[in-house]
Design brief:
330 residues; 7-stranded parallel beta sheet; 5-stranded parallel beta sheet; 12 strands; binds nicotinamide-adenine-dinucleotide
Length: 330
């Protein structure tokens, strides 16, 4: 049995080797995205796994091409599968699978880390230290146990973040369109987004991106926040109206922000633009602000998450090849 994995990074190789040995399956890799031009590489394989930023496209012939090679599935080792035309793949007889949750802790820990950095004013101290200014005046920190963390979207990641914040002693409140009774030992639900925004010292976003969550944090929402409150976004960029965030930060309506994801990130994130003058985008403006921290969508990027993405995706391929069913099929 042979499986081909597309778009493989060096940091995935150890997990792939371990899985291949444990299952006695040959797993070959390349560093190419899956497109009509690279589809022929899958010839002779029993299964394939992809992971990519750009869309495969909606040309049904590429999916039929895979089926004609004898493949039964198309597995993405990501949660999002917006790169795949699922109806076209299904029409060709392929089972499409994803990895919906590889490690909620990976992103939740990122949100906790960024929150701690914000409340300790570490970004502002870094700025002073870069100027050889070792003073601490004006930058007294607040302890997390004295604060209310408001989580919008207490699902897999938000629920995990709630447990971590609760463990650190914070008061945790949450707003979600669905309530999870198993979380009520660590958080208190509020009825409206507005109520949460007014009460929280840190607003932590973990909604999935959907028509109700796009633009959830707009100018009116930011105005409801306390002037000394912070916002942390490790969900999806378009959940915040970035123009409104930039304006609110400039006007001092909120104290700062940590963004692992931001509208327009695809033009910059996971690329090296050293030495270039960045176009005057919102991202560039936010990067200039001393009270804003940007990380390039790396919440997911941990040892355990990468291993789980590899293991869960390959397990599903094997199951399907052997005629079984997986709960991750669309
Ligand atoms: N930064 C990263 O590297 C990274 C990695 C993985 C996932 N993510 C993002 O994290 C987010 C959460 O992922 P998850 O697996 O926890 O998702 P999930 O589906 O388990 O949880 C999302 C929660 O948001 C709630 N929600 C949706 N729309 C809402 C709205 N308008 N108002 C209030 N609540 C709403 C849902 O009811 C659900 O409980 C997603 O946006 C995902 O894309 C980021």
């Amino acid at each position: 049995m042979k499986i081909l994995m597309y778009s493989v990074r060096d940091d995935e190789q150890a997990a792939i080797k371990d899985w291949a040995q444990a299952h006695d399956v040959q797993v070959d890799t390349n560093d190419l995205e899956f497109h009509p031009e690279t589809a022929a590489l899958a010839k002779g394989y029993d299964g394939i796994v992809i992971q990519q930023r750009s869309a495969i496209g909606d040309d049904p012939s590429v999916y039929q091409q895979l089926a004609d090679m004898g493949l039964k599935q198309l597995t993405s080792r990501t949660a999002g599968v917006d790169t795949i035309d699922i109806p076209a793949a299904k029409a060709a007889g392929l089972t499409v699978t994803n990895v919906p949750a590889y490690s909620p802790n990976s992103v939740a820990e990122m949100a906790v880390t960024q929150t701690m950095r914000l409340i300790r004013n570490l970004e502002l101290f870094d700025g002073r230290l870069a100027q050889q200014n070792f003073q601490w005046n004006g930058l007294q920190a607040r302890e997390i146990r004295s604060l209310t963390v408001g989580i919008i979207g207490a699902g897999r990641i938000g629920g995990t973040a709630a447990r971590l914040f609760h463990g650190l002693g914070a008061k945790v409140i949450a707003y979600d369109v669905v309530r999870h009774p198993e979380l009520t030992d660590v958080l208190t639900y509020v009825d409206t987004k507005e109520e949460l925004l007014k009460q929280a010292d840190v607003v932590d976003l973990h909604v999935d991106l959907n028509p109700t969550s796009e633009g959830l944090i707009d100018a009116a929402a930011l105005k409801l926040m306390k002037r000394d409150a912070f916002i942390v976004n490790a969900s999806r960029g378009p959940v915040i109206v970035t123009d409104a965030l930039v304006a609110a930060l400039k006007a001092g309506e909120i104290a700062g922000a940590a963004l692992d994801t931001v509208e327009g990130e695809a033009a910059l994130f996971n690329q090296n633009h050293q030495g270039e003058v960045l176009a005057d985008t919102n991202v560039a403006q936010l990067m200039q602000m001393p009270n804003v921290m940007i990380t390039p969508h790396v919440g997911f990027y941990t040892n355990l998450a990468v291993k789980n993405m590899v293991d869960i995706s390959l397990d599903d391929v094997l199951t399907i090849i052997q005629g079984g069913q997986t709960e991750h099929a669309f």
